Amino acid sequence: MTAVIADNLPAFVIIVPLFAGVVLPVFARRQRLVEGLVVLAEAAGLAGVGFLAYIVFTHRGTDWVYQMGGWPAPWGIELTVNSLAVFFLFAVMAVSLPIALFTMGNLKDEVGSNKRTARFYTLFLLLVGSLAGMALANDLFNTYVLVEVATLSCCGLVSSRGTPRAAEAAFTYLVLATLASSLVVIGIGFIYVTTGHLNMGFASQGLAQAWQDRPHVVWLAISFVLVGFGLKSALFPLHVWLPDAHSSAPSPASAVLSGLAVKGYMICLLKFLYVVFGPALMKEFSVDRILVLAGMAAIICGAVMALPQDDLKRRLAFSTVSQVGYIYLGFGLMDENGLAGALFYLASHAAIKSTLFLSAGAMIASAGKKKISEMAGIGRKMPLTAAAFTAASLGLIGIPMFSGFIGKWYLIAGSLDTGDFLPTVIIIAGSVLCAAYLFPVIRAMWFETPQKAKQESTVQQECKTAVQHAAEHMPAGPGVPREVRVKDPGAAQKLALILLTAVIFVLGVVPGPFIELARSAAAELLMLR
Amino acid sequence: MKTLLEKLIVNYPYFFAMVLFSIGVMTVLTRSNLFKKLLGINIMGSAGYILFIAAGNIRGGTDPILHQSDPGTVYVNPLPSALMLTGIVVSVSVTAFALSLIIRLYKEYGTTDARRIARMRNEVTKSDSSDRG
Fold first, then answer.
1. What is the pLDDT, as a whole number, of residue A457?
2. Cα–Cα distance between B125 and A315 in angstroms, integer?
3. Residue B106: closest CA among A312, B114, A496, A354
4. CA pair distance A365, A359, nearest whole angstrom
5. I need a surface site. Which of A68, A147, A154, A350 has the fewest CB within 10 A?
């Protein structure tokens, strides 16, 4: 039994979340069981990824190519377990487990009704399974199918609250994401037409020849794929759908969408560009420069657009646009340090943005206020949540000891290696802007006193005291306004926030093994080895 | 050396796929009616199907069933058709989901026009903030 699992582990890592997601609605009435199953599936996934990482570390230099159903490569479908896949799988599982923990017990308040929670978990697990698949798949069409599964689950998650605002955001997202999928599938079609292969390795060999014979078709393929995945992962001029979609989703969904889903499409694009087209073709078509320019524009414009947002979740969503820019900038540098930095930054941003969205969600749910200007003094009432938010903000800005610093350090090293100093300046300017849009939130949370009490006129206060007086003497009924106590969320939520903050600290203080894994993934992609 | 026109005539399925795709993209991006946007998505999908299936077609080829008596027969490549079956499934689920969202929006706003929905939503948010202020 264990041998069967160990031999087919790459397939199990994908199948377990997908299967659990499909089975869950059967138990929809038993809330505890559903939550337990979700956490169990996530934990099993994490354990599986841990074992895969062990295998990759012990067999350094050789990828584990798993053949689905035992069919060899040009006919069968392959899953490749290499450093890149393991790195991204680790990020997915280590971030989605705390998010699943966070949803235990309080998901009903987020999505509206008990009936919707099972649906939410189904979509969540389908998304996690398809992200795991994107990391491992070595087949163009499988990647497309997994991307579609992820896209539909994302749209479902966005609309899971059921408000008309969410439905509108989900429809816009669905239209643009499907447009992107069509672009991707036609790009894959061009690759298949010119090479006759859907396996990434064989397609890559075929493209080297096809580029000599039919350069225009290859050019079309690369541009369709670039725009398609760029639209899906909110690369700067194509980010229009993101703020609405991510801010109108329930908070755990925002965390998984901003933290993980966007990264999945980026990993797909990375594999298409580096593994299928190859670094030489990328240089030939200046894709690297396009990525660097779009990344720099994203860093600055995303941060500038985040500044005037008063809605906390919208500000965080615009911040995602900016942070996506850093990762694309690193992808475009085509340098070992830069690429390793981009991958590390991807994992670090996954943990940081999930923490930010989850703690913001807890504060919004507890205080009932969405605006930053109304959050004054909330840090004293919810110290742990606010502390997690603060730690994650410092990480996003790139203060040493937090994970964002290491990522930015390697990105700057990479941009200096290429001899172009403009990206370096933009990275540092982006950090300053990031501080400019996050520090006001922290200041409001910890150092400002609530203004409402001062503004209230004496008449209103008198009314209030009268109401309170009446409430004390009357039995509490539905008509009596009850003061909601603002406090930290429950134990599972606290544990989730502590786990995520611990991930940010661990990545920032002992980045050694992770940066090592990212570097070996970068070396694989750049074919230095 | 073949002229461009000859190339187009020989490869007409690809040409039509691209024309269909452009029509689809134009519909999605320029129409404000949600149903028309959805139709545009489906037209784009059809372009993808045509591209793949045309790539699998071999002129004069038969259905891909192995005849042991005549091993030299030319077959149509069955793989793209199989792939597009998956593509159609994806497209159907996208359509179903989008229709459910449109119903939700129509129940709320009484229209399926994206611009009018955006205007009504902005008015609601404005009145919300003025109430609070």
1. 46
2. 17
3. B114
4. 10
5. A68
Give the list of residues 6+ apart from residue A4 with CB closer than 8 angstroms, or none: none
Instruction: Provide, as residue numbers in chain A, all residues whose Cβ is less than 8 Å from the Cβ of B52.
Output: 189, 192
Q: Checking phi first, is residue A253 left (phi over 0); if not, alpha (psi -120 to 50) or beta?
A: alpha
Alpha-carbon distances, residue A103 vs A39, A132, A252, A362, B26 (angstroms): 10, 21, 7, 11, 41
At residue B129, the pLDDT reads: 55
Domain count for chain B, please give it.
Answer: 1
Mean pLDDT for A89-118 is 84
Angle, helices B78-109/B34-56, rounded to nearest 10 degrees: 180
d(CA A504, CA A214): 47
Instruction: Confirm if A507 and A406 have CB atoms less than 8 A apart.
Output: yes
Specify whether the CB–CB gap between A193 and A207 falls below 8 A: no
- A398 to each of A356, A385, A408, A411, how far by Cα in Å? 15, 20, 7, 12
| Amino acid symbol at B129 | S
**Predicted confidence (pLDDT) at residue A482 exceeds the cutoff of 60:** no
Range of the structural domain that residue B18 is part of: 4-132
pLDDT of residue A475: 45
User: Residue B101: which of A167, A178, A190 has the nearest Cβ?
Assistant: A167
Does residue B9 surpass a pLDDT of 90? no
pLDDT by residue (tens digit) across A483-518?
Answer: 456 777 888 889 999 999 999 999 999 888 889 889
Buried b (16+ CB within 10 A) or exposed e, B112-124: bbbeebeeeeeee
CB atoms under 10 Å from CB of A469, counted, come to 10
| Residue A431 in this model has a pLDDT that exceeds 90 | yes
Cα dihedral across residues A494, A104, A318, A340: positive or negative? positive
Token digits for A7? 């031999």
Task: Quick: pLDDT tens for A237-281.
Answer: 888 889 888 888 888 999 999 999 999 999 999 999 999 998 888
Rounded mean pLDDT, A122-133: 94
Tell me whether residues B86 and A179 touch, CB distance under 8 A: no
ipTM: 0.90
Check which CATH number belongs to the domain holding B35 and give it: 1.10.287.3510
Cβ contact B55–A189 (<8 Å): yes
B25-82 tens-digit pLDDT: 999 999 999 999 999 999 999 999 999 999 888 887 778 777 777 777 788 888 888 8
Give chain A's contact residues with B (Cβ, < 8 Å): 141, 145, 148, 152, 155-156, 159, 162, 164-165, 167-168, 170-171, 174-175, 178-179, 181-182, 185-186, 189-190, 192-193, 198
